[in-house]
Input
Amino acid sequence: MEFLTHIDIAPFEKKIDHSCHIFSTGSCFAQNIASKLQDAKFQVAASPTGILFNPESIARSIEMLDSKHSITEDELRCANGVWFSYNFHSSFSATDKHLALEQMQQAIKRGAAALKQADTVIITFGTAWVYRLLERGEVVANCHKQPHSLFSRERLSVVEITERWSKLLATTLKDKEVIFTVSPIRHLSDGLEQNSLSKSTLRVAIAELTSLHANAHYFPSFEIMNDELRDYRFYADDMVHPTFLAIDYIWQRFAQVAIEKESLELIERVKKICQAAAHRPLNPDSESHRAFCRRQLDEIERFSLSHPMIDFSKEKEIFVAHL
Output
């Protein structure tokens, strides 16, 4: 008996392998997928300006990276002794203005290099609802817990999202394969009706984009969570975020359609080496453990000869330290 409805996902024509450079940004679900790719030793740059939720802020972030925008002190704001930027996540905020500025400038520098090098870009939209700063009339990436009176709240339209991203797909992203997803995480603060309207807006906009641009594709993480895994056991205690099991399931579905067969096979070998490095020996000074470490170093050496792009420097350091 079948106890769930499987979603048919057509394999991507251009798949990811370990030689690809991947850039991932958007909502926290983008970070989840990026973490899975990083664990599998893919070359990934994730969320350089922090977690972003709406299509406008994600687009602006990409434009900032593409132009190597130089953050200035005038762009920072201070509240309760903390310096921040409305274009960055709160993780870049600091009580020291110069430290906050330095962190943001370095993020732009690293992100710009990663975006330029990337051949695959993964974009995850979280919500179509945005907050516009009344002072400047601009959509903010993060409100930084500032008073609601400083903002107006509105929902981006399908046309606004489509036009904004069509320009990016035809310019900055024209030579890259772009995979869009809609975050399965519900924004309960909007109310379930408004959340549903928001997600529908995002989904229709992406459908328009994929029909207009050959380099734009869609992966149905939203549909997998809500149809294949439509059970609260796949949600965390907050009843909003997916559990580790759900994230792993969605990752496996992604890998099936988006990753080359050879790289899928490499993932299992990578996993074994990483597990070996994380293993806590009963007697780390024993000759048997040193022999174990030497075998792992030999395996890494063989791996490096055939796949030099895969970085095992962290694991190698662990094994060498036990010799």
Remarks:
- The chain is about 45% helix and 15% strand.
- The longest strand covers residues 21-26.
- Residues 97-117 form the longest helix (21 residues).
- The CA atoms of residues 42 and 100 lie 30 Å apart.
